[in-house]
Design a protein that fits this description.
TIM Barrel; single chain; 12 strands; ten-stranded parallel sheet; 43% helix; globular
Length: 315
């Protein structure tokens, strides 16, 4: 069964009333998940732009919903020490009575590291630290005591109680972006879910799935055990007239031709309800289990309502 989530980017300046309306609307309209990005700021000069901290925002979202699953897409490993993060997620999992997903990644937004005084190592080191962190977190969630003597992290005879509410622990989703080989390899070893984003054509995504399946088999895992999600930048228009009007106005604003704008938008999911339905079916056919919709900022409620009314029942 294909399920749907909605993406919230706290860095884009939401207030708490905005977030509450989005998560409650998502729950009412049968979206199964809401996902939060983990950022510390939008731009270097975003002095007056709100950017709520991810885990705190998730806690608030859980408190204002009853069945909606809540997850980070994705938590940056280097923003929190892995052992402390394991404790935070286990706590949140109990508070939600098992409605937490655990999206995890290496982190990439260098400006945040620089402004907050966090070291920003090379991509290879970030991947190595990420793998060590995954091992520590899983151990703390499942073992009575954890000892770990890695290159970057060391844990000595650590206990962590309570264990997560979900058994053995929340689903570990690894955010892979466009899916480079090294992060796909780690996903095949440790992940239970994978998310590709944000603008990947169907055929390209299918090839990434095939590569991931091969890697899972290499590690003795069944590819069917991996939940596969695709995160899409999206825009739904009520009809063809609204679509043409929007494209014309946007092209004029950007001082480009409509044809050039359409080319730029070719890798995202946008169109009339019928066009969206057709595109969703293509992704479903290649094995996507869950689609995460990144609607235009502050238009999430309207877009979800349109999605529920014109699209959801047709898939």
């Amino acid at each position: 069964m294909l399920t749907y989530g909605v993406q919230i980017e706290p860095q884009m300046g939401y207030n708490w009333e905005d977030i509450t309306e989005i998560v409650q609307t998502a729950e009412q309209l049968d979206f199964t998940h809401t996902w939060f990005s983990d950022h510390l700021l939008l731009r270097e000069d975003s002095i007056d732009t709100n950017c709520f901290e991810c885990i705190s925002a998730m806690m608030g979202a859980v408190a204002r919903t009853e069945k909606l699953r809540i997850g980070p897409l994705v938590l940056c490993n280097l923003y929190r020490y892995p052992a402390v993060l394991a404790k935070q997620i286990a706590t949140l999992d109990h508070f939600s009575k098992g409605r937490i997903e655990f999206g995890f990644g290496t982190g990439w937004k260098e400006i945040e590291f620089n402004q907050y005084g966090i070291e920003f190592p090379s991509g290879g080191i970030r991947l190595a630290m990420f793998e060590e962190a995954l091992q520590i977190i899983k151990s703390l969630w499942t073992e009575e005591r954890t000892n770990f003597d890695g290159k970057y992290y060391k844990i000595k005879n650590a206990v962590s109680a309570p264990k997560p509410y979900q058994k053995p622990h929340p689903t570990i989703w690894i955010g892979v972006g466009s899916g480079k080989d090294k992060i796909l390899n780690l996903t095949a070893k440790y992940g239970k879910g994978v998310n590709f984003a944000w603008a990947i054509p169907v055929e390209e995504l299918f090839q990434k799935f095939l590569k991931l399946d091969e890697l899972m088999i290499k590690y003795g895992r069944d590819p069917r055990d991996m939940k596969k999600s695709y995160g899409a930048w999206a825009q739904i228009y009520r009809d063809e007239d609204e679509k043409k009007k929007h494209l014309k106005e946007t092209a004029e604003h950007q001082k480009i031709k409509v044809e050039e704008l359409e080319q730029r938008l070719s890798r995202i999911i946008h169109g009339t309800p019928d066009e969206i339905v057709s595109k969703i079916k293509e992704y479903k056919k290649i094995g996507v289990d869950h689609m995460i919709w990144f609607f235009p900022v502050k238009e999430e409620v309207e877009q979800m309502q349109l999605f529920k009314k014109e699209i959801m029942s047709k898939i």
